[in-house]
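Sequence in, structure out. First:
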Amino acid sequence: QEQEQVFMQDVYIWLDILAIPQYHPGIKLPAINSLYMYASSVDALIIIAPETRHDNTGERADRLSYKSRVWTRVEQVAYASVHGLKSMYFYDKS
């Protein structure tokens, strides 16, 4: 497998979990609409979705629930349309 040297000063991290304000409808929609730009601009897409449950709802949160949300699919398509699949990673170990 080919490896590239990456300098930490060149690494920027976008935390998707912090990107969409859930309780303010006036800000939520523009934030959702900006996902394509963010996801297509990164150098690598790393999806971390171990098998777990949401603390406040008890709903499952894992690979299957990640794949069932429309906006997560938008992120994947946005990323893949610019970069392909070679630097898209999915981690689902607990």
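Second:
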Amino acid sequence: SGSNNLAIAYEAGAVLLVLGDLSTTVFQMRFYQGLTTFSAFCITIYLASANLSGFHTPAAAPLLIIIFAVERFIEAHLVTSAYRAIATDFAIEHRQAASRAVGISDQMSTTL
């Protein structure tokens, strides 16, 4: 049912959110590739939430769960990478403003 699929998506997304944070110590995703993939996955999720007919198949729910979970991984990886870049590459006088901008952007994307 829909509520079970939503619960599974949130549980899988939570696990991959943590793994996305931790993955920045292992590899660095190219920013524009990650952002493009993240955007495509978000658009797919929004189209599915609009109840379009293409998403009324038995295979749609598992695919959307996977897309949602991977999207959460990419989100965490990009945000953590941005904070790491701010902490290591920015001049000290610009770090606070840059961190605040990343935090606001993250909150906006989470809200949307």
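Remark: The radius of gyration is 16 Å.
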